[in-house]
Amino acid sequence: MSLLSGKKILLGISGGIAAYKTPLLVRELVKNGAEVKVVMTPSAKDFVTPLTIATLSKNPVLSTFTATDQDNPLWNDHVELGLWADAFLVAPATSNTLSAMAQGRCNNLLLAVYLSAKCPVFIAPAMDLDMFAHPSNQKNMETLTSYGNKVLPVGEGFLASGLEGKGRMLEPETIVTHLIDFFNPNLPLKNKKILITAGPTYEAIDPVRFIGNHASGKMGFALAEVAAQLGAEVTLISGPTSEKIEYPTIKVEKVVSAKAMFEAVKNSYSQADIAIAAAAVADYKPEVEAEQKIKKKTDQVTLNLVPTQDILAYMGANKKKQYLLGFALETENELDNAKGKLERKNLDGIVLNSLQDSGAGFSVSTNKITFIHADKSIQTFPLQSKYACAQAIFDQILPHDT
Ligand code: CTP
Question: In terms of C-beta density within 10 A (0-12 exposed, 13-18 middle, 19 or more buried), how is residue 237 classed?
Answer without folding.
Answer: buried
